[in-house]
């Protein structure tokens, strides 16, 4: 099979398309013929050696594969060759206290996490455990499923499960042009919220407005907190959706109304920030951490996509061989939604 590998940390020039042996499934595993896989910013961190995950060379990137089951390992039941699936990024144990209580992303004994150990998704085939399989319903294409499963799963977990967003609340979505930002705009609107979003680019704000965003703020030319206060009658928002870090984390805290909650899943633009404790407790604010999502949340999103209620935003598709061009586009940040690699055969 073809796979994208790198033999040293570096920029996108280190990526190579190479021939590798086809994987075979071990007990409890399946091999999936990958038809589509979305790029994720984590891939850049792993390639550059800054991810804080262990990486062995040669390494294949990719955490968002979608395709068809091609082979079943010993003891696999309930799945058939040909089933269309997305692959959950954690091989959960299914038995620990977190797995047993619907919080599987916190599994204490995962066999694999992301592409570590299992071979990444920038390849024609991946091996995974059956505990990673998420069925794709009719009405959701492979490319849509690849673009959607991490973006919408993350947005759903953050807004609905962790922050408990309710109809009638106001929410500030940071960086609406990203995959998880554009998904969050749609999930928040679907939940009945009034949605304010920000971006560094007016064209991305226009795209988000077309998805239902009520108010857009360009954080390079406008004062985020002042614009939020203007849009909320001086109150601030109930919920901030944060995945950027640095200055936007600060703006997020300052944009909350009293008793508001900020839910956060990342901090690329500044992972260590000053934090003023006094207004935090006097205004009774909450900061809520959020770690990936569950398979059930993805299934809920897939069902809504199949009904047309949520729309995956596919910025561009590239064949696997053009991985460098796809990666360079992602790193340019000049796109809206998700970039997808295809290997042919995508339904
Ligand atoms: Zn577990």
What is bound: which ligands? zinc ion
Q: Please name the fourth-level CATH homologous superfamily of the largest domain.
A: Medium-chain alcohol dehydrogenases, catalytic domain
Model regions low in confidence, pLDDT < 50 over at least 5 residues:
none
How many strand segments?
Answer: 17
- Helix-strand pattern: EEEHEEEHEEEHEHEHEHEHEHEHEHE
Mean pLDDT, rounded to whole units? Answer: 94
**Gap from first CA to last CA:** 20 Å
* Beta-strand residue fraction: 15-25%
Top CATH class of the largest domain: Alpha Beta
Supply the number of structural domains. 2
Helix content: 25-40%
* Shape, principal axes of CA atoms: globular
Rg calculated over all Cα atoms: 20 Å
Note the quaternary state here.
single chain
Q: Which structural category do the helix and sheet elements fall into?
A: alpha/beta
H/I helix tally? 10
| Largest sheet entry | 7 strands, mixed
Q: Give the name of the CATH architecture of the largest domain.
A: Alpha-Beta Complex
Top keywords for this entry?
single chain; 347 residues; alpha/beta; Quinone Oxidoreductase, Chain A, domain 1; Rossmann fold; 2 domains; seven-stranded mixed sheet; six-stranded parallel sheet; globular; binds zinc ion
């Amino acid at each position: 099979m073809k796979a994208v590998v790198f033999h040293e940390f570096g920029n996108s020039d280190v990526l190579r398309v190479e021939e590798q042996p086809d994987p075979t499934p071990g007990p409890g595993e399946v091999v999936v013929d990958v038809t589509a896989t979305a790029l994720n910013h984590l891939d850049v961190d792993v390639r550059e050696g800054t991810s804080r995950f262990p990486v062995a060379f040669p390494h294949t990137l990719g955490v968002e594969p979608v395709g068809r089951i091609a082979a079943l390992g010993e003891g696999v039941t309930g799945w058939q060759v040909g089933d269309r699936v997305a692959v959950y990024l954690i091989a959960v144990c299914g038995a620990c206290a977190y797995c047993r209580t619907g919080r599987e992303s916190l599994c204490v004994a995962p066999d694999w996490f992301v592409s570590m150990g299992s071979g990444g998704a920038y390849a024609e085939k991946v091996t995974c455990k059956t505990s990673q399989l998420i069925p794709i319903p009719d009405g959701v294409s492979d490319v849509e499923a690849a673009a959607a499963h991490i973006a919408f799963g993350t947005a759903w977990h953050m807004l609905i499960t962790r922050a408990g967003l309710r109809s009638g609340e106001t929410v500030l979505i940071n960086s609406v042009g990203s995959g998880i930002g554009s998904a969050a705009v749609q999930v928040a609107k679907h939940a009945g919220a009034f949605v304010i979003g920000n971006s560094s680019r007016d064209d991305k704000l226009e795209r988000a407005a077309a998805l239902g965003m009520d108010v857009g703020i360009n954080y390079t030319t406008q004062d985020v907190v002042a614009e939020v206060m203007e849009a909320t009658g001086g109150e601030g928002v109930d919920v901030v959706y944060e995945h950027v870090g640095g200055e936007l984390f600060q703006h997020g805290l300052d944009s909350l109304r009293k008793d508001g909650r900020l839910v956060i899943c990342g901090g690329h633009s500044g992972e260590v920030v000053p934090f003023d404790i006094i207004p935090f407790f006097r205004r009774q604010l909450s900061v809520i951490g959020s770690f990936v999502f569950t398979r059930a949340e993805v299934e809920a999103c897939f069902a809504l996509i199949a009904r047309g209620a949520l729309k995956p935003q596919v910025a561009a598709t590239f064949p696997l061989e053009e991985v460098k061009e796809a990666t360079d586009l992602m790193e340019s940040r000049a796109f809206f939604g998700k970039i997808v690699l295809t290997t042919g055969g995508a339904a």
